Amino acid sequence: xxxxxxxxxxxxxxxxxxxxxxxxxxxxxxxxxxxxxxxxxxxxxxxxxxxxxxxxxxxxxxxxxxxxxx
Length: 70
What we know:
Layout: H1 2-18, H2 21-32, H3 37-44, H4 48-66
Helix pairs in contact: 1-4, 2-4, 3-4
């Protein structure tokens, strides 16, 4: 179980590294730094709605890349 979790972490890190820089940054700020959409928008000088779109696009790409993981 621990090895499977570590393997997933590695696959996830690689997939995030393959994302466009802005998408990876939004995920970093949201999930790691725990900023909300408004805070991320202020940081990147864009609206919260645009942050939401970028986050969704990034998560969709990650889901697609990890669909067959295992």
